[in-house]
Amino acid sequence: MTERRRRRITQAIAFCLLGSAGLSVLLTLAIILYFMTAQGSRAVSWEFLTEFPRKGMTEGGIYPAIVGSFCLATGAIVISFPLAVSSAIWLSEYARGSLWVRVIRVGVNTLAGVPSIVFGLLGLAFFVGVLKLGVSVLAGALTLALLILPIIIRASEEALRAVPTSFREGALALGATQWQTVRTIVLPAALPGILTGAILGVSRAVGETAPIMFTAAAFYMARLPRSPFDKVMALPYHVFVMATENPNYWRTKDLQFGTTLVLLALVLSLNLGVVVWRTGLRRRKRW
Amino acid sequence: MVTGTVESGSLQTAIEWMERDTDAEPVIEVEGLNFYYGRDRTLSDVSVSIPQHGVTAIMGPSGCGKSTFLRTLNRMYEVIPGARAEGTVLFAGEDIFKLDPVTLRRRIGMVFQRPNPFPKSIYDNVAYGPRVHGIRRRSVLDGLVEESLIRAALWDEVKNELKKSAFSLSGGQQQRLCIARALAVRPQVLLMDEPCSSLDPKASSQIEATTRELAAELTVVIVTHNLHQAARVSDHVGVFLSGGVLAEFGPTKKVFEAPRHPDVQDYLAGRFG
Q1: N or C terminus of chain B: which is more exposed, having fewer CB within 10 Å?
Q2: Between A and B, how many CB-CB pairs are < 8 A?
Q3: Is residue A20 part of a domain?
Q4: Within-domain flag for A126
């Protein structure tokens, strides 16, 4: 076998391996989507989306869980977003290169690696216990906000650092203060990246069970929450409850898949929405 | 002699400008300026008086501290961590290190090496400075935008598309937009850091013509690599040599015809740079 031929075969094998690795990712996603849709679509209907559960949650819909998840995710992002973006601005624009930045960055990265159940217990101990918020939407939203804080900080900081220095210099050289430069030039330019972080955060918050099971989630509620201090049902916890806590769990299998499908569709459409919006924003910027 | 290598057309212009009355009150007085990046000294004991109005060109080989010198004058070096300036710089009699940098930069504008328009419309780019300084009235802004674009010789090309993105302009137009943006806050001094280095010859000569016109009303300090450009455009020339030493400063004609420092003679003769 000639050297050239051997190299060509090696290359072909390498391409095959790499290609099949890529394909297997796609295949996994396809399998998940297929089973979710095939099993879940039997349960999903207009009534399923708009009605309360009935007969010990073996029939009826998941309306309160959808509303609950919506409240929790909205609360989490409303609390987390301003805090995360402010920290990212401070890290990238004001404290750049200092020792504090490095210390805080280690902290943020560690926070990102903490298992979500730890956040759940922290929320139970601190928000529910010490702050006496009780098991409530507010306590759950605060806990989720902590969980997604590092995600948004990291994405925002990267987006801010990607803004060319020449923009900042241009503004400063005109006599703009640093805050004016950040507010009118740097932030608008970094917005697409910051939004990506926000949506990753929301997607994460919607899907998490552990942080809310002790802090916000209700097994079953016959009504929607009336205030931030009410308990709520939530999609991921509802699935967990139907699959483990219910003595008739085998009768709810379709409902479980249906709920999961709704959850998945919610996360995917959130992601898709932002991708489309961001592409629009990106088309305007060229540098 | 360096004039032998200049094309005849621009030689005529160059000589015309060189013959101008170049005695004027200094607007910027630098005394014993040293500059450090961390431990490296990039300017050593620079003393110079930059006269009011007209164009002062700063020349010298790469890495000799030309840009550093320019960035000291409006304290733009302060954005770089570890940069430190020592010495006295007086602007219109005031110590710049005691002035608020925001006030200072409003009075001493800057144009950068590469055009750096903001990702905004042409109008919003020019109006940015005035807005930052609190001007909100539409009629005032409109007036400033038009005046600045006219002074930067860009008005005729963009007057019908002020709402278009600044990135839709060519490189030379973008640089003239940056000049207009700097002029809109009505500075007394305009610093230009190799403004033509990323432009083609035609765009460069447009910038040069604009610079000459501006010099009637304000003081321009321009860093350039290009000896011909310095000869064509400037009234005074300063030459930095390696180590950040200002080896020569004087009226352009004098410096080009009879430089005192032997290294400056070599530099002007194109033997290094």
Answers
A1: N
A2: 70
A3: no
A4: yes
* CB burial readout A71-87, b (16+ within 10 A) else e: bbbebbbebbbeebbeb
* Kind and range of the H or E run holding A166: helix A165-173
* Structure tokens belonging to residue A163: 């803004």
Using CB atoms, pick whichever of A97, A180, A285 lies closest to residue B119: A285
Neighbours of A243 (CB within 10 A): 16
DSSP string, A131-150: T---SSHHHHHHHHHHHHHH
CATH at residue A106: 1.10.3720.10
Residue of A nearest to B107 (CA): A175
Q: Is residue A9 part of a domain?
A: no
CA-to-CA distance for A230 and A73, rounded, in angstroms? 15
Q: Answer whether residue A7 is part of any domain.
A: no
Interface pTM, i.e. ipTM: 0.86
CB contact under 8 A, A169 and B178: no
Distance of residue B255 Cα from the nearest chain A Cα, in angstroms: 31
CB B112 to CB A175 under 8 A? no
Q: Which residues of B touch A177 (CB under 8 A)?
A: 102, 132
**Interface of chain B toward chain A, CB-CB under 8 angstroms:** 74, 76, 79, 81, 102-106, 109-110, 112, 114, 116-119, 128-129, 132-133, 165, 167, 178, 181-182, 185
Burial class for A97, CB neighbours closer than 10 Å (0-12, 13-18, 19+): exposed
What DSSP string runs through A85-119? HHHHHIIIIISTTSHHHHHHHHHHHHHHHS-HHHH
Contact B84, B36 (CB under 8 A): yes
Q: Which residue in B220, B222, B182 sits closest to B67, CA to CA? A: B222
Structural element, H or E, at residue B239: strand B236-241
Domains along chain B with CATH numbers: 2-17+26-268 (3.40.50.300)
Number of domains in chain A: 1
Q: Which helix (H) or strand (E) holds B190?
A: strand B189-193
Chain A residues with CB-CB distance to B under 8 A? 96-97, 164, 166-177, 180, 184-185, 188-189, 284-287
Domain span at residue A157 reads 62-284
Q: Which of B217, B223, B178 is nearest to B197 (CA)?
A: B223
A104: amino acid identity, one letter? I
Cβ B74–A164 below 8 Å, yes or no?
no
Q: What gap in Å lies between CA B215 and CA B213, rounded to an integer?
A: 5
Q: Is A46 exposed, middle or buried (0-12, 13-18, 19+ CB in 10 A)?
A: exposed
How many Cβ atoms sit within 10 Å of the Cβ of residue B154?
24
- Nearest residue on chain B to A189, alpha-carbon basis: B119
State the DSSP code for B121. Answer: B
pLDDT in tens, chain B (273 residues): 333 343 444 555 554 544 444 455 778 999 999 999 988 889 999 999 999 999 999 998 888 889 999 999 999 998 888 899 999 999 988 999 999 999 999 999 999 999 999 999 999 999 999 999 999 999 999 999 999 999 999 999 999 999 999 999 999 999 999 999 999 999 999 999 999 988 888 889 999 999 999 999 899 999 998 888 999 999 999 999 988 899 899 999 999 888 888 888 888 887 665
